Amino acid sequence: MMMRGGRSMVSSPPAFSNDAKKLLVCTSNTVSVFSTATGLQITSLEGHTALVTSVVVVPPSSPAAKVLCYCWTASLDGTVRYWDFAVPELMKTIDIRVPIFSMVIPSFLDIPSEGKGKHQDLFAYVFTEDTKETQEKTKALRRQIRKCNLSKSRLVGRLILGETKKAEVLTVSPSGKFFGIRNKCRLHIWKVPDLGSEHAAVRKITLHHTKKITAIAFHPTQRIIAAGDVTGRILTWRGFGNIAFSGSNGVENQKLISIQEDKPGVRDNDDADSCSTWHWHSAEVNVLSFSSDGAYLYSGGKEGVLVVWQLDTGKKKFLPRIGSPLLYFIDSPDPTLSSISCADNQIHLLKMPSMGILKTISGIKAPCCYPEMYKGLDSGIAFDQTAGLAALRTENYCIQFYSLLDDRGISEVQVCERNHQPGDDATVIVTAVALSVDGSLMSTSEVKLAEEGIGGLVCLKFWQAGSQNKEFSLSTIVYEPHRDAGISAVTFHPSGNMVVSSSFGGDFKVWRCNNDIIQNDQMHQNFSWTCHSVGSYKKRPMTAAAFSADGTVLAVAAETLITLWNPYKNVLLAVLGETLTPIVNLSFLGKSDNLVAASCGSNPQLSVWSMSKLSLSWSYKLRIEAISSAVNSSSFAALALLPESSNETTFKGRDGVILLYNGTDPVPTAIWSVRKAKGGALGFLQVNPSSAEEIIIDGKTPEVLLAYMNGDHEYVVFDPYCKDAHEVNMSKKEGLSALELKGQGGQYGYESIYGELPEFNKKIPETPWVPSFPSERPWETIFSGSSHNLPPLTKLCSAFLESLLEKRTASVE
């Protein structure tokens, strides 16, 4: 087991708690619970074994019941689970044995009062996949809408409400009377039966459109449904189902039967009174939602702009420059709070109706999509080993700093001052990012793409960190540092005052830092960088670079050769033997005299070289994706890609392995198979002494952790030297749950009445309590003192019961 993170928070719509103080977010096979006051994670619901696709909070039966925290979740593992997310605790599990893509519960039937009669069953409607193979059923129609009896924990017989080729999201009306799905150019709407019977008839209508429908929303009080299509249009049907959903067979009230000419905008004699169209979005509409009073309609799409439409007049206002395509808009029980989920794995909490962003829950950003000529670059991920952070390139020309131990975004650095419009072609490529050992300095390289062969530009930038939260400021910018050649690698000296950049143009440059202290109102340091020296070897492209642990040796790969230099005097020291293909990665192994190199191409190779003998120690023919070496030892880890032929047989679909080596031994000390290794990265993390108490494995604090991040930026952190690679337990997350409890998130339970409990000295060794003789009457002193100073009853109970037992000495015969 390992500590996992980097999961998508926008795979399914989130849900607010009844008091709007918590936000439940589907994150892979768990549900993470966040505080809306702080934006920090409080707890998580763990139990599903596959992707969680739906979370539905049970509404309160009375205003006093808003403090209750119950929810239902559905997953691709085929189970529906009932939780108390305040504890958190799993209350019930229903296994329907088919994957669930979506679930809605139109109405929650509360416990009836006396004389009201028999309690009615609770039903959910689920979108599932028929996994049974039959000759008469084609694979095209295996997605089904089924009815599930949650009270009796089973599907309702063979009742199938609808079948489609593709799994769609079920949308329920706020009144709980209707639910529907989009199916290509059609809308299917069902009316929920009034009776709580399993086999009550469920009526259905279909509305038609000429374009593919991408989003739908129901009005909270009226029979109005809105739909968005791929062209950016928004259609609004009024009076849908007035014929089919009223009376028996829809003929009781003849006034509801309208003449075709009286249905403006309605197609194919659909059951609706009228249909109107709005058009502002330039691309497909992903978000549609009515306000709680039904007066406004919210829409959003690929442009990253939230549009608010006044339903009666069509007037609109905007929340622009969100910076990423919008996916979901969710209203909370608090009319002043809403949330909007974006494609860049962020959830913004909005203050309504002004639509100001109050808090942002930042997940890890997805990998960038680059033009074909730049896809051969490395993963572009740098690790801050001391702080446990990862620096990643993002599509909006930023570097995101992400805490691997806290699983949350810390900050973003705007590398290129350029407005990013979602969907636009990339005009700037951030090709490399490097951090100093202490994380206080950063260097980035970028390429401005040429337009029709004109205007290409390469930049090397140096950054210095601010006082808090990794807020970097630009200190030096160098245009065309290697003439018109691209930068292949950027590496920091261990001291941080030197950087080497290598280029495909056949040279490398060593940059020195000039540290000036400026005294203004507040004294601060100003860093400027200048070129110290330039080196080359037979005009060969320089493809990789690395400093030794003490900084006295600089290794630069000249295609298939390794050149060793004195970085201070710019003197060539030695040249190591030739590899078969160009070297793309170099790393010195801690404080040892070994150097590891990885080459790619038709004959890939992982090789370890001895600096004392200037010769090859050992090598393997492996396709290496990433290398990382430990600072204080000779160990290193390599991420190797497996041949496609062995994925499905030997490694069961896993496409890579992590190999842990001791530099002098060609036999790996540990091997882990992984998925999505292409584009992955590795990094050793030093355990900070200040946070050592927070990270405990088998009762011990590890000295070093290994982080693996796959091609989708999902990651695991574990102790590589632990035989079983146990889960990394965060026993005390200061600044997360602690911050939630210390004022910003409010106080609950005992603390809300009597205040905070006194802090106990955890360093005092816990010795077993030995009861004294009954004559001392200890129970009279256990409960003495003021009530607000008493420890919880769970701690008092065992001591009180043991105090009533008489101590007896065993006689030895």
Q: What overall form do the CA principal axes indicate?
A: globular
Distance from N terminus to C terminus (CA atoms, Å) equals: 50 Å
Major sheet: order of its strands?
1-58-57-55
Number of helices: 5
Rounded mean pLDDT score: 81
* Rg over alpha carbons: 31 Å
Could you give a short account of the major beta sheet?
Answer: 4 strands, antiparallel
Write a compact overview of the structure shown.
With 813 residues, this protein is mainly β. The protein is 4% helix and 44% strand.
Give your account of this protein's structure.
This protein has 813 residues and is mostly beta strands. Among the domains are: 13-95, Thrombin, subunit H, CATH 2.40.10; 97-110 and 122-131 and 141-208. Helix content is 4%, strand content 44%. It is built from five helices and 59 strands. It has a four-stranded antiparallel beta sheet with strand order 1-58-57-55, with no helix packed on it. The longest helix is centred in the last third of the chain and has 11 residues, at 793-803. The radius of gyration is 31 Å and the shape is globular. Mean pLDDT is 81; it is low at 109-117, 249-260, 726-750 and 760-776. Keywords: Nucleus, Repeat, Ribosome biogenesis, rRNA processing, WD repeat. InterPro entries: Beta-prop_WDR75_2nd (IPR057644), WD40/YVTN_repeat-like_dom_sf (IPR015943), WD40_repeat_dom_sf (IPR036322), WD40_rpt (IPR001680). WD repeats lie at residues 206-237, 278-319. Residues 399-655 form the WD repeat-containing protein 75 second beta-propeller domain. This is WD repeat-containing protein 75 second beta-propeller domain-containing protein.
